[in-house]
Each structure stands twice: as structure tokens, then as C-alpha cells.
Amino acid sequence: METKKPVTAIIVGGGHRSFTYAQLALDDPSALKIVGIADPNPDRRKKAMEMFGFNEEFCFETAQQLAQVPKFADAVINGTMDHQHIETSLPLLEAGYDMLLEKPFAVNIEEMQKLLQTVKKYGNKVMICHVLRYSPFYRSVKEKIRTGVLGDIINIQTSEFVSYHHLSTSYVRGKWGNSDLCKTSMLLAKCCHDIDILMWLMGDNMPATVSSFGSIFQFKPENAPEDAGTRCLVDCPLVDTCDFSAKKIYLEHPRRWAMYVWDALESLDHEPTLEDKANLLKNGSPYGKCIYKSGNNVVDHQSVLFNFSNGATATHNMVGGTARSTRTIHVVGTKGEMYGDFEGGTLHLQTIETESPTGFKYEEVPLDTFSEDTHGGGDIGLIRDFVDYVRDNVQSVACTAIENSVAGHLAVFLADRSMEQNGAPQTFDFSIF
Q1: CATH 3.30.360.10 intervals, the chain
Q2: What's the Rg (C-alpha) of the chain?
Q3: Is 269 exposed, middle or buried (0-12, 13-18, 19+ CB in 10 A)?
Q4: In this structure, how many other beta carbons lie within 10 angstroms of the beta carbon of residue 249?
Q5: Whole-model pTM?
Q6: pLDDT per residue over 371-397, tens digit each?
Q7: What pLDDT is recorded for position 232?
Q8: Closest CA to 20 of 73, 67, 79
Q9: At residue 171, does pLDDT exceed 80?
């Protein structure tokens, strides 16, 4: 029996997500082998060399430099920032690499068209990191729908509640807090997972129109306490009492969002101390700014309504600043319904049963395993599926090949356009692709 060779891959953008997927190379070397890295940060290049055992010959500062040398791997794991995806992906696709590309794969419709045209021209296998499809929770929902137990889907309701510390770190003070800098909206950066799930669960039933509303409700200058300073640990008398102070969120919980908040300390020759971290928050770190005066411009809540081609409807609600982060879903069909809490790992099924005294049958849906990783077990499922796709040309029902990810991305772009136009309905036109 022929032994399969591992897929060889190069990390492009050595951030947290790329190394999460690359971990498979250490856990199962028969599936994946990391053979190079392209990242402008020398510490991250060194980290990759030490972790995966290749030498400096296979280290590059940019994707463009990598594309200029003869192809030496099967694929690329592209974990660069959202607005860098096109500039880093196109030269590597042209060089013949297959690619695992972090979501969102484009930040506007024009970029999406350009990437799709390139993939069609060169025939690359490109998968998008919509990891939620691979979690036992959402996979179970999809499998139940496919069995027909719910009948025809009438409506899907999804919600994402973003905790106050996650909102603060990523979407107010952090990398995705200002669309002028990160080039992505809140819906695109945070909820393209959820919108992708909606499109995936609806199957061949394509969206027809979308409307959306949203705003910055909470964290804006006019809502700042009267005595609030500009930097929590420098000039704010409320540093010990404000629920959103950098001291309370980060120094008192130093492991919380550490990969973002303390990344500037990676180059220290010792383990960062609390004093190091406090000095960082005092001197220039965006995470040390007053949450009300951080310069953010992305919404902290948004509601989206879809009308599908067969008359079914769906909604997604994103609400930031909540006590707990969670995702919920409720799928209603002509024969039954499913609902559940993603973070809680609970999923329930109710089906019509006319002979029952209650009129319905209830059961709790068992989940295979519910991992405590960032995406409920989806990370490992996605990278293994990518290996199968590249090596064996096998696409699972969850496969996030780029062609399967167009509807979700277009839905986000049109929803944001609707929100900018005070909820005016936007029509889907897939012919442009």
C-alpha cells in the first residue's frame, strides 16, 4: 500500500492564526510539513525555523520575495492581515501554489473579483478559513438539515454576542477598530463566519436581497465619563473603577488576548513582567487608550435581514459589549427546528409529532467532541480538510473552497452598503463573478 506524502506548506504571515494551523505539522507529520516562512518580523522567522526545522534559506521577508524563487512546496498558509490578502496571494497563486487563506479573503467586491479571476486562470486549490463549518456544533446542524428531518428551511436566525473585553481588544482599541486602517468593517472582520454559515446551511438556495442597520452605540467620545483621561494608566482618575480600563481588562488578566495585547513584547530577552506590560500600556500601545477615545469607527451592533430566492428568510444580529461571548442559532423548517448555543456546546432538535400529547418530539443532539479551542474544534478540522483537498482532491461537505465562499462575502459587502444607505435593500448579482 502506497504511503501518502505530507502536504508541504509555507507560512506567509507568521501570526497567531498561521501557527495554529501549522501545529498539525507537529501533531501529525504524515499529514503536513512546514518548509518555509515569509514574514517581515525576524523573531517570527526564527520561531518558525526552530519549530519546524528548516534553515534560513527558506525564510523570506515578503510574499513577493518568496514568489520570485522556484516553487518548493505544495501550498501556502496565508495568515496576513485582511487588507494584505490580495497583494500577498496573487503572486503566489501565479507561482503555482495552492493556498489556505485566512478570512475575509477580500475586503471589497473588486478584490474578490480579482482573486477569483486569478484562481480560475491558474487552477489553484484555495480554501478560505471559515473554521466554524468544521466545528462539531455547526457540522451537526448541517447534517440534520441534509437528512431532511427539518423539512424545507423557512427561516434561520443567528446571533453573535461579542464580550466587552473582546470588543475592546479587537474592534475598539485594536487591529480592527478603524476601517480606514484595517480596510474591513465590523461585519466583515467579525461576522463573515456567521454569514458564511447562513449561506452554507441554505445550500443551493441563493440570497436575493439584503437589508441592514447598525451604529456605534456605546464606545464613542460623547459617552466617556466626565473625568475620563486619554490613556488609562497615565491620566485617568477612573483607572481603578472603570469596567473598561486597560488595567482591569489587561493587567489584571494578563493572559486575556495576550497574542494581541503583548505582541510588541515578543522581542524581549526575558519573559515580560507586569511592569513591562504596564509600561507598554502607558507608552504608545493602542490597548492603553481610553475605550471611549480610541479613534474607532466600526459599529458595535448591526442587524442584517436576508430574503432568499425561494422566499425563505434569515437574520443575523451582532451585538458588542456583552458580558459573555457566544453565538446562537435557530433553524426553523416545515417539519421541525434546531436551536443551540455554540459556546455552551448545546444543540436541540424539536420535530412535529401529531400523535404526541405535546405535539412535538424533543431531543438533545449529541456532539462528537466539543473542543475548547477558539472555534469549538473547527481549527483542526479545517487544516485536515485542506490537506485532503490539496493531496487527494477530496472536498468534504464543509469544504470552504473559494468558490463556495463567494455568497457569504458578497452578502457582507452588500449588507454594509445597505447599512450606509440607512437600510436600503441591496440586490445580489452573482453574474459579475
Answers
A1: 132-219+296-432
A2: 23
A3: exposed
A4: 22
A5: 0.93
A6: 555 555 789 999 999 999 999 999 999
A7: 97
A8: 79
A9: yes
Cα atoms in the Cβ-side hemisphere of radius 13 Å centred on 1: 2
Exposure class string for 271-302: b at 16+ Cβ within 10 A, else e: ebeeeebbbbbeeebbbbbbbbbbebebbbbb
pLDDT, tens digit (0-9, with 9 covering 90-100), for 52-77: 999 999 999 999 999 999 999 999 99
Q: What is the pLDDT of residue 370?
A: 47
Return the H-helix or E-strand segment holding 362: strand 360-364
Q: Give every CB contact of residue 419 below 8 A, 6+ residues apart in sequence.
A: 212, 213, 214, 299, 302
- What is the reported pLDDT for 371? 52
Per-position DSSP letters for 374-394, written without gaps between them: TTTTHHHHHHHHHHHHHHH--
d(CA 77, CA 16): 12
Structural element, H or E, at residue 75: strand 75-78
Would the pLDDT of 267 be above 90? no
Secondary-structure class of domain 7-102 per CATH: alpha beta
**Residue 117 φ/ψ region, left for φ over 0, alpha for ψ in the -120 to 50 degree band, beta for the rest:** alpha
The domain 132-219+296-432: what is its CATH number? Answer: 3.30.360.10
In the chain, ranges of CATH 3.40.50.720 domains: 7-102
Give strand pairing partners of 350.
Answer: 337, 362
Beta bridge partners of 101: 78, 128
Pairing state between β 126-128 and 98-101? parallel
How many C-beta atoms surround the C-beta of residue 317 within 10 A?
Answer: 18
> 59 forms bridges with which residues in the sheet?
37
Question: Nearest-CA neighbor of 130 among 324, 396, 343, 325?
Answer: 396
Residues 6+ apart with CB under 8 A from 237: 227, 229
Selection from 60, 63, 43, 50 nearest residue 22 by Cα: 50
CA distance 72 to 98: 12
Closest residue by Cα to residue 104 from 195, 181, 207, 20: 195
